[in-house]
Design brief:
Helices cover 36% and strands 21% of the residues. The chain is an alpha/beta fold and 145 residues long.
Length: 145
């Protein structure tokens, strides 16, 4: 699947049920959550169950919330520039917890040059400024096999 000109590897581990249980999280010290709230609302309006974690969550807290909520997807938002550490850390902790079937996507201000490393770490898609709600919903619908 191609999102905004970038090939996205869609995990084919299992069929995703609808509605999906999606955790939307703001890792790190970034205090700007308007975009994350817009995404959470759009995904909720599309029929998914969305759990918004609030601001300033650690990767450990995010993984724990995903585990407790039995989430199939985690959406991470970063505007602070810490995505290069925080997103891969969440993916690493998911693998360590045996939750590597949870799909992780990211959004925010993430330069193109940083994206390959995030994909290599396990992030399935990155949505930057200007991404429409329908593009994100299309991505989620594409998770079904």
């Amino acid at each position: 699947m191609c999102i905004r000109g970038v090939q996205v590897d869609i995990p084919a581990r299992r069929s995703m049920p609808t509605p999906l249980r999606i955790v939307i999280a703001k890792p790190g010290l970034d205090g700007h959550d308007r975009g994350a709230k817009v995404v959470a609302r759009a995904l909720r309006d599309a029929g998914h169950e969305v759990i918004y974690t609030g601001l300033r969550r650690t990767p450990e807290q995010i993984v724990r919330i995903a585990m407790d909520e039995d989430a199939q997807v985690i959406g991470l938002s970063s505007l602070s520039g810490a995505h290069g550490f925080l997103f891969p850390k969440v993916c690493e902790l998911l693998r360590e917890a045996g939750l590597d079937d949870i799909v992780v996507f990211g959004g925010g201000i993430i330069p193109e040059r940083d994206r390959p490393a995030l994909y290599d770490a396990g992030v399935s898609a990155i949505f930057g400024p200007g991404t429409t709600s329908s593009e994100m919903i299309e991505f989620l619908e594409g998770l079904e096999v």
